[in-house]
Amino acid sequence: MKIAVIALGKIGLPLAVQFASKGNTVIGIDVNATVVDLVNRGIEPFPGESHLQEKLLEVTSAGYLRATTDYAEAIPDADVVVLVVPLFVDDDANPDFGWMDAATTSLGRHLTAGTLISYETTLPVGTTRYRWKPQLESISGLTEGVDFHLVFSPERVLTGRVFEDLRKYPKLIGGLSAEGSAQATQFYETVLDFDDRPDLPRQNGVWDLGSAEAAEMAKLAETTYRDVNIGLANEFATYADKTGIDVYQVIEACNSQPYSHIHRPGIAVGGHCIPVYPRLYLWNDPEATIVRAARARNADMPEHAVQLLESAHGSLKGARVVVLGAAYRGGVKETAFSGVFATVTALEAAGATVFVHDPLYSDDELSALGFTAFEIGAETDAAVLQADHVDYQAWGPAELPGIQTILDGRRALSAASWPAVTYIAIGQSGSTV
User: Fold this and answer.
1) Burial of 31 (0-12, 13-18, 19+ CB in 10 A)
2) What residues of the chain score a pLDDT lower than 50?
């Protein structure tokens, strides 16, 4: 097959590599000329994706994968086009289709008959049928269901382990026609491998959900569930902080039977997915009060963490406070919707002098994000663990001399590593145990 992959980001590039590893001719399209150049040289343009470098070098050296900035080079006569362009939300939590509209326009201008198009970017329900179909038809002059077929197939992978997750989870698809769904099923069965999953109600593989709308909702539902579950855990943790209960013992006890699956509380929910997709669901269903309440609870957690720190430490006015971790989660160099921003804002509002450290970011990179970088070994009054990087598990008062109080926002540290320091964790701060 000739396959075009639009957008060679942290999901798109591993997908392109996976498709090429099956012996297909794959052309990746990206607006970033630097990314295109690196891919063509067999060099991964971003770090941290397991096995990407060796797989990328293998398929580019064999001539199965190349990259370009030119749609005219990649789209005409393609058997399949997979689009993974980012969708953003604006400050009012409305979807911003700007980048996707631009990519769809370029795709439509060069689309030829006989192509299967699969959108993998998470979308509000109805977008495939009522936005992409008319745009593609209007621009190309072709008819969906006759000249080309359009499906939605959400990516369900986690950055850092994309190849593993592609095998582990069923590939969901939903077409606008039975023929489109059949072609998408055949395509993904050809380019993907699936692990045996006896725990699933049916065989792991490509699952046709019957419509694009069902596939769109499935991705929103599975990610919104996680946000709501974390919101509930944070609600429990907030109450536990007021009453002296160790919420982690409570959650462990609850989850000891098979009908309870309470997630862990924490200082923030970040990344491109979990804090964003519930907003896309709310765009479809603005009366979803449970979803809205959970999103608000999770957004309030950095402020709650700073209040806990202040209760334990005393006034933060003039205090030197270090936020440990700019990334939204440990081990990932990404700050999308990271809790670091709200945490720094809340600390500054409390009068603290705030510094930020992250082992994955240079001082210049932290400065570019608007932070004052922390130098290990500088005098410190208090610290807040925001991202659970493994590096911090080896830290103690030697790295933060003078520290009096630490707030563990992820319950990732050990109190034993902080002797003579007031150590508190969200959901455990008032525990007498």
Assistant:
1) middle
2) 432-433
In this predicted model, what pLDDT tens digit does every residue of 320-364 receive, in sequence order?
A: 999 999 999 999 899 999 999 999 999 999 999 999 999 999 999
| Whole-number Å distance between alpha carbons of 10 and 45 | 9
Longest dimension (CA), the chain: 73
Closest among 77, 81, 88, 71 to 29, alpha carbons compared: 71
Among the options 2, 10, 273, 333, which is catalytic?
A: 273
Nearest alpha-carbon partner for 223 in 123, 138, 329, 352: 123
Angle between helices 289-313 and 277-284 (to 10 degrees): 140
Residues 16-42: tens digit of each pLDDT: 999 999 999 999 999 999 999 999 999
Q: Which of the residues 219, 254, 317, 333 is marked catalytic?
A: 219
CA torsion angle 237 243 248 253 (round to 10): -120
Catalytic-residue membership of 254: no
Catalytic residue flag (residue 273): yes
Collapsing DSSP to helix, strand or coil, 220 comes out as: helix
C-beta neighbour count of 262 within 10 angstroms: 17
Classify the C-alpha dihedral 56-59-65-66 as positive or negative.
positive
